[in-house]
Design goal:
4 strands, about 10% strand, mainly alpha, about 150 residues, about 70% helix, two-stranded antiparallel sheet
């Protein structure tokens, strides 16, 4: 449940870097996600709904009018809610994938900023800030003891 709460916060309040990463990864995985939705998720869903193809689902507002020879006089006017559902599923998969990648990157960043963790090299600016903080704490302790 915590994971979904963090995903909601990411999707609603993401900063510019998170959005940039999302756009880049979303574009890079667009083809993979498209195949995943169309070839993996939708066929079982179509099977459960007795062979309904969701891409072609629509609400027809006005039927097409054709001549006797088969040429179209007026085009059909329809709301393609099946395509919308597919696009929404694409968005959820891409968004969740980006969220997981950003979460992983933030964990690595946090680990690199921990000066007590010797498994990862700490950046010099973080080391200097940590030393400065330690010196200030020592100075405050000396001033309080006087």
């Amino acid at each position: 449940m915590q994971l979904f709460k963090e995903f909601k916060e990411f999707a609603v309040k993401g900063n510019m870097m998170d959005m940039a990463i999302g756009i880049i990864i979303g574009a890079a995985f667009n083809k993979v996600i498209d195949v995943l939705v169309k070839k993996v998720f939708l066929p079982p869903l179509s099977l459960l709904t007795d062979g309904v193809n969701f891409q072609n689902k629509k609400i027809i507002l006005k039927e097409a009018v054709n001549k006797a020879d088969g040429t179209t006089l007026t085009e059909e006017v329809a709301i393609g809610y099946g395509a919308l559902g597919e696009a929404f599923l694409d968005f959820i998969i891409i968004g969740f994938t980006v969220f997981i990648v950003v979460k992983f990157m933030n964990q690595l960043k946090k680990k690199a900023q921990d000066t007590k963790d010797v498994t990862v090299a700490t950046p010099k600016d973080i080391e200097l800030l940590d030393k400065l903080t330690q010196l200030m704490e020592e100075q405050n302790a000396l001033l309080k003891s006087k």
